Amino acid sequence: MSTTPEAPKALRNIGNFIDDRFHLSKTGEKNLRKVFPNHWSFMLGEIALYSFIILLITGVFLTFWFKPSMAEVIYDGSYERLNGVQMSEAYASTLYIDFDVRGGFLVRQIHHWAALIFVASLVIHMLRVFFTGAFRKPREINWLIGVAIFVLAMLEGLFGYSLPDDLPSGMGVRILQGVIMALPLVGSYVSMFLFGGEFPGEEIITRLYMLHILLIPGILLALIVAHFMILWHQKHTQYPGTGRSEKKVVGTPMFPGFAVKAGGFFFFVFAIMVALSAFVQVNPIHLFGPFTPTSITSGLQPDWYMGFMEGSLRIFPNWFDFNIFGYAVPIGVLVPGLVIPGLIFGGLAVWPFAEQWITGDKRHHNMADRPRNAPVRTGVGVAGIVFYGLLWLAGSNDILSETFSISLYATTWFFRIFVILGPIIGFIATKRICLGLQRQDRETLEHGYESGTIQQLPSGEFIEVHKESSEETVHVLQSKAPVERIDVEAVDEHGVEAPEARGAKGRMRSALARWYTKDNISFEGVEPHSGHHLHHGAHAAEEEAKAGSSS
């Protein structure tokens, strides 16, 4: 008979000391048993978390040698091709990290790749949350936190990209200054304050450095902690399946299963980043030289997450620019630089509340939707992806033009047209596909799946026998919520118009509710295929044939 060995007396005493004062044993035991659902898509958020941790670790390493100064120096270092070139201390110190600090170039590459993967995993994670409806009550606050993390991550990436003061990053800062200058009335004042004078000024690197290593990371860290605390309290959403419900979570307990899996996944993500950094060079600043306001280069693009803004600035026409009281209002810069990003991120932030208002659905949701079961939401999401993707491609219209020998003006007009038509086509096509998949699901639920067995009826008709779907499949198909249009009632039981429906707001809500649900396929009254009847009324035909032969 084996017994569990006791912990050393010193550890037991420490544990008792802490528990006597904070009573953590019961809380810790409960949290260690907390269940996390198993699905690969839930790891997208973990990749974002691990990338952020790697960013913090590598960023601390880089701060030991980076000098956030725009003071001019003459380079005399290990990279001989730039010896004797005048540059800022920021650029010279970055070259020192790359060529003189042991492992410095690898760490800077890891830092840059971690930033790219951090934003990418945030985007894909948010798409998963959006398409499955995981933002619905009670998780609206966590969705807003996620949107804020996304915006701050992009700003953090932009500021970090600008710190080395090389030619590409300086061009990015120049674009930032142009957008700031487009602000009516206050643009020039904000630019002078931020840059410490006329562009490029003397202070921009120092100020971006403080924002990059202190303010934004601190806010990000606080938001990420809040995000996970809310997630921990509200529990994770899960996909429909056998044994799962709004109140019952099926998955792996926190300890030891999930903890071991998460720890191993962290090292896997880290290994991928190190491999990319070792074999796929990114942002080789030594090849471009230091930034000077009079220099420019072609064929360069910003980091991928800023490509949509680059594209919107390239294709938006200047037809709408105007002057008011002697002040120029450059719509061709103001709209693509501020309004379009505001619409994208503002739309993401308000969508949970807009959908709740349209549908009137204020129930708690712990089960994730299948995207096909919310065709309008899925269509809107695809329309947003198409809009973003076309702007992103427009950011490289010069490269597309040169590569495929197409006129630059032709590519510009193509994107101008399709950035409007593309989202509309994407929405319509996605909605129709979702409705088609719903009909297929209803068919599978009602008649089972095709077995490949052909049977001849007494009447001479040949039919294919359908077999009963698995319990898991039936449970997933039946998870589709009833089609409910929670409308603003036009009249009550006495025929009197409801006050909520009299105004334009009530009528608009009613129209939107009809638009949101009118084409959805209802599964009400559909009984799962039991395996005892044939497909498409063949059973009835067989009974009729039997009745005819007996008579």
UniProtKB/TrEMBL annotation:
Q: Name one GO cellular component term.
A: plasma membrane
Task: Quote the biased-composition stretches of kind Basic and acidic residues, using this chain's numbering.
Answer: 539-551
Q: Which GO terms describe its biological process?
A: respiratory electron transport chain
Q: Which cofactor does it need?
A: heme
The Cytochrome b/b6 N-terminal region profile domain covers 14-240
Pfam families to which the protein is assigned, alphabetical: Cytochrom_B_N_2
Q: What is this protein called?
A: Cytochrome bc1 complex cytochrome b subunit
